[in-house]
Design a protein that fits this description.
The complex is a heterodimer of chains A (310) and B (126). Chain A has helices spanning 2-6, 11-20, 25-30, 54-84, 99-112, 117-125, 127-148, 158-172, 176-198, 207-225, 227-230, 236-259, 283-306, and strands spanning 48-49, 52-53. By secondary structure, chain A is an all-alpha fold. In chain A, helix 5 crosses helix 6 (117-125). The longest helix of chain A is centred in the N-terminal third of the chain and has 31 residues, at 54-84. The radius of gyration of chain A is 32 Å and the shape is extended. Residues 1-5 of chain A have low confidence and may be disordered. Chain B is mainly α and 126 residues long. Chain B has one domain (2-56, 70-125): Helix Hairpins (Orthogonal Bundle), CATH 1.10.287.3510. Chain B contains five helices and no strands. Chain B has helices at residues 2-7, 9-27, 31-53, 78-108, 113-125. Chain B is elongated. Chain B starts with a helix and ends with a helix. The chains are: A mainly alpha (310), B mainly alpha (126). Chains A and B meet through helix 4, helix 5, helix 6, helix 7 and helix 13 of A and helix 2, helix 3, helix 4 and helix 5 of B.
């Protein structure tokens, strides 16, 4: 082995040695501080910024740019090719319009009692999926609370003090136009949100869209009348109760279905008369639960991102 | 080629939107712009799913004034449910990543990912 390292090697010999396991390409090819003829590697000091070589960063940036453009173009080409193999847009006899969709449309009303077939689908046949969605929202708002909520007794950061000062100035401003418009608008916004939630099973809408409207109303209230006024009826305790409570109610209402493998045991609350407000079994309470979670989550995101507290 | 574009214009738009979002996710070093790119990618997916569920000459799966569904009148309801799931997950992921970005900004006072990495490296080597 010593003999072979002393004389210059042909590339295929190196490769054969590497294949045989006598050496690794790193120690024999790329890194050699002392050469066989006595020369020593002269270290080329690279320009450093904050402990990192500039040349390396620049080379990496160039490679990264080229690689990302190439990967993106390849990806688009691949997806366009896939799209070209698909059946045309709007065709009837395509594999996606199979017996599942037909079952939901034809039997949905008699089995769930909801004339909005999508609501019947997501809150009855696929209620487990919707429970997962609500849980995702709950986990998201809880992680945002963990990351951004400020400690009230520990306010000596410059930025915290600046935000508090801004809030104080904001709440002292008269803001007549905003307050008047909000005073007229907010009851209608809340009414519309509640209407959308309660009619989720007989008209377009449902818990998610109605909850988003309610959340927008809360945000408008907080912006026009100030967080201090809002906190009189919507503080952190109410917020926690309104996010975790409906989730538990939802799980409790639907658990029997999950435990029986979605076999739909006989339920006391039947489908009722389709098209009436009090119909469609437990879809209405489930919609209310989802609406409460979504409204609290939307407002919670806004409050935490802008003020760092609810 | 013309036939391909005419038959698939919604899907092609979705693919191009996805590409725009993907390239801005990769090329921008500003974290907020990366998150915006991610959101554009999500929107492309919704457009694709919604266009797959559409059928020419049919209406939304909603019974108005009747309780007996007719065959061959309504579009596919499944993509609507899938898009709903997608929107919820997208909102959650966006909020979580924005919260992390806000924390990073408070610590390093920059949104540039390269600068943040350099500063973090410096902090570790200290």
């Amino acid at each position: 082995m010593n003999n072979s390292t002393n004389r210059p090697q042909k590339p295929w010999e190196k490769f054969a040695r590497w294949v045989n396991g006598d050496s690794t390409p790193e120690d024999s090819v790329l890194r050699r501080d002392e050469f066989p003829d006595g020369r020593k590697r002269v270290a080329q000091p690279e320009k450093m910024i904050d402990g990192t070589a500039v040349g390396r960063i620049r080379r990496f940036r160039k490679f990264y740019l080229a690689a990302s453009v190439v990967i993106c173009c390849l990806f688009i080409a691949l997806m366009l090719y896939t799209v070209s193999e698909m059946p045309p847009y709007g065709a009837v006899d395509v594999p996606t319009n199979n017996e599942v969709a037909e079952k939901y449309i034809m039997d949905g009303v008699t089995e769930t009692g909801a004339t909005n077939i999508v609501a019947g689908m997501i809150l009855d046949y696929r209620a487990f999926d919707t429970l997962g969605e609500s849980t995702v929202l709950f986990i998201a708002i809880m992680s945002v609370v963990l990351l951004l909520r400020k400690d009230k007794e520990y306010v000596n950061d410059e930025e915290d003090l600046r935000i508090l000062e801004e809030q104080r100035i904001q709440e002292q401003k008269p803001n007549v136009a905003l307050k008047t418009v909000a005073f007229i608008m907010i009851p209608f916004i809340f009414l519309f949100g509640i209407y959308v939630i309660l009619n989720g099973h007989i008209s377009p809408g449902g818990g998610f869209s109605g909850g988003a409207i309610l959340g927008a109303g809360l945000i408008l209230y907080a912006n026009s009348f100030g967080f201090t006024k809002l906190r009189k009826f919507f503080n952190f305790k109410v917020f926690t109760a309104f996010t975790s409570g409906p989730l538990l109610v939802y799980a409790g209402l639907k658990t029997y279905s999950f435990f029986t493998g979605a076999n739909h045991l006989y339920s006391i609350i039947g489908p009722g008369t389709p098209g009436m407000i009090l119909s469609a079994g437990i879809i209405l309470p489930l919609n209310i639960c989802v609406g409460m979670i979504v409204a609290c989550t939307m407002f919670g995101f806004y409050a935490l991102f802008s003020k760092g507290e609810i | 080629m013309g036939n391909f574009i005419m038959n698939h214009y919604y899907e092609i738009t979705a693919v191009i939107l996805f590409g725009i979002g993907f390239i801005s996710l990769l090329l921008h070093s500003n974290l907020i712009k990366k998150i915006v790119g991610l959101n554009i990618m999500d929107t492309a997916i919704y457009l694709f799913l919604a266009s797959r569920g559409f059928i020419h000459g049919r209406v939304a799966p909603l019974l108005i004034g009747t309780t007996v569904p007719e065959d061959g009148v309504y579009i596919n309801p499944i993509p609507a449910g899938l898009v709903l799931t997608g929107i919820v997950v997208s909102v959650s992921v966006t909020a979580f990543s924005l919260a992390l970005t806000q924390r990073l900004y408070k610590k390093y006072h920059t949104l540039n990912l390269d600068e943040i990495l350099l500063l973090a490296k410096k902090e570790v080597s200290k």
